[in-house]
Amino acid sequence: MSPAPSRPPYRTLLLVSCAGLVPYGAQIRPVFGQAAEANLAELSVTAEASAPPGTGPVAQAGFVGGVTGIGGGLRPVDAASAGVISGAQINSRPITRPGEVLESVPGLIVTQHSGEGKANQFFLRGFNLDHGTDIALSIDGMPVNMRTHAHGQGYADLNFLIPELVGAVEFHKGPYFVRDGDFASAGSVRIDYLDKTDRNLALTSFGSFGYKRALTIASAPLGQGTLLVAGEAQTYDGPWDVPDRLAKLNGVVRYSQGTALDGFALTGMAYWARWNATNQIPERAVAEGIIGRFGTLNPTDGGDTSRFSLSGRWSRTSDAGITRANAYVIRYGMNLFNDFTYFLNDPVSGDQFRQRDSRVLGGGEISHTVQGDLFGLPMETEIGLQTRTDSIRVGLFNTTARQVRSTVLDDRVLEASAALYVENRVRWTDWLRTSIGVRADGFTADVRSDTPANSGTAWDGIVNPKLGLVLGPWFETELFVNYGGGFHSNDARGVTATVDPTSPLFNIRRSPFLVPSTGSEIGLRNRSIAGLETAVALFQLDFASENLFQGDSGTTEPSRPTRRFGIEWTNRYAVTPWLSLEGDLTVTNARFSDRDPIGNRVPEAPTTIASAGFTFGAGPGWFGSMRFRYFGPRPLIEDNSVRSKATALLNGRIGYAFDDGISLSLDVLNLTNARADQIAYFYTSRLSGEGPAGVADRHVHPVEPTAFRLTLAGRF
Predict the structure, then answer these.
(1) Are strands 225-236 and 211-222 parallel, antiparallel or unpaired?
(2) Among the four residues 65, 407, 409, 631, which has the most C-beta atoms within 10 Å?
(3) How many Cα atoms sit within 13 Å of 34 on the Cβ side?
């Protein structure tokens, strides 16, 4: 293989719209010339009739537009279930909490079962992803998922996200992509902030239940680049009998030069929050009148968290190819006080516990994409290296009213990983292109436990193939076939532990360090109707060990092997430049793949997820949106004898944008005042006066009642 003679300079055409980048539904694929002059790596990012750049609806008083650096350059969207969403689309939806911006990803549910400062709960493709297990989230090249976390493996707190700063979101589903490693079996979502804004922003919001928010975003030329500064402050009580009293401060400073493919950026972020928490409550406590629907059995639950980061990215494009690099260092801390079982374990002092996590993590990625040819056919090859190291102090303590009574564990963990990936992409004909890749990951951990028998070192590695095939287009239709292996890591403490820290006389079975998964998918994407993009995907995913939520400890623990298969149908319709429609449906069958008399249903695995909505408005004048979200019933235990209820929510927005840059909007959340549940679990807890064995019951966290939020924004 050698470069084709007389090849034009290697470059990438990236058309950035005022919406931040291209909307989901825009065509993102390599553009090839003829024979030796073809340039596979010359990516043309264009918005077709289905999503004209910069002219789509923008139903957000705080939307500023601007230019984003998407982590150094877009890869081809090479699966029916993959896509890119613009910042305009992200901000067009009324949301209750920052993490809900990810519900723009078709089939993804984002909810909450605790106070607003805690990480969200995620559901995708028949997975209860808990707080982030098996969905890899990153912001500006920095991982959000935390390994060996105090509250659960893969814990991903998105509360530091500022939606108005989002320039673009790139999402993949399934373990088919070489850049995706740990936690990415169900999918991955990459969020990139704006490098600069079209206009500065000053925004203030007031709403029901003590909601107050202020936000400022400004960017200006500095030297040969651009300086961007953003600051946010928020308070919120919620409808709870014991108010959340959320207090949040958030800031971003970024300096950038050049473009996403020839330039660099340095970014600093700082975030701090504290809150009270009304966790899920047993249904019997409400039925017996002990507490109300928005009450709590332990008013001292809650927590605090902080996150400080410094990151940078660099890219260069030349005749030799595209080189991208990014690096980051993050200091993170969390204290979480929870009480899920009340008096089951300690009938006198109660079961509240404190989970502490304090860590510094750092890492980065470097990749190089080079063009070439294979027997005269256009080809490109990408090679990359990823690293990450976490220095962690993690602890668990028994508490009463947030006062520590005893230490269960207080461990120190040094965990590191490295990955090498290679992918080769070839266009064989006008209607056939392939990608063949391989990814190798290596992990190591050193655990120093206050229980000496649980100290030790561990290492593991895994190699996974990644294959893709694209046929078409014929009649504006493409066929995608994907296959790949993935994995998630387990908590390093479970890998080295030999005894139960609460009862050292009892031995426990060690967990595997890395748990493999295997996925496959076949899908169609069609654009034959002007303005409409529709995609259908059939998928399957096998996991060697499922991570399940354990109600008594509030963490995830390894469980049995599983198999999932399902169908996903996604639709985006740009009816006019000022009106768009959308509709998504995912149906999944999730089962344990081994035999056990206890049953084969995967607890909390959703069967049906659906959403639909519309957005209108472009430029000055009226704007608005409406979105319906359906979260279907789920088995809560393995034999399916206990199930959750379905949740159907409707949110709406109406607003007016004046010519001078001032806009006023009203969001109405839970428009129909549905008495539904955000989340439901089934486990044993014990209320005061109940027998020592406790009672197995459904534990639910209710949806907030109808809430109003008024936003006044000025852009200048």
Answers:
(1) antiparallel
(2) 631
(3) 0
Q: What is the DSSP letter of 689?
A: T
Angle at 70 between CA 68 and CA 72, to 5 degrees: 120
Tokens 């549910």 found at? 109
Cα–Cα dist 92/577, whole Å: 14
Alpha-carbon separation of residue 537 from 173, 177, 572, 585, 629 (angstroms): 10, 16, 15, 11, 20
pLDDT in tens, 225-266: 999 999 999 999 999 999 999 999 999 999 999 988 899 999
The share of the chain scoring above pLDDT 90, in percent, equals 81
Predicted local confidence at residue 107, as pLDDT: 96
Strand segments, DSSP code E, in 449-561 are 456-474, 477-489, 499-500, 503-507, 514-526, 532-543, 547-550, 555-558
| Residue 577, CA distances (Å) to 58, 201, 406 in order | 10, 24, 62
User: What pLDDT score was predicted for residue 556?
Assistant: 59
How does DSSP assign 239-297, residue by residue? S-SS---EEEEEEEEEEEEE-SSSEEEEEEEEEEEEEE----EEHHHHHTTSS-TT--S
DSSP-derived letter for residue 453 is G
Structure tokens at 187: 């999918």
Report how far residue 34's alpha carbon sits from residue 45's, in angstroms, rounded to the nearest whole number: 19
| pTM of the full structure | 0.91
* pLDDT tops 60 at residue 32: no
Nearest CA among 305, 401, 394, 392 for reference residue 353: 401
Which amino acid type is present at position 106?
P
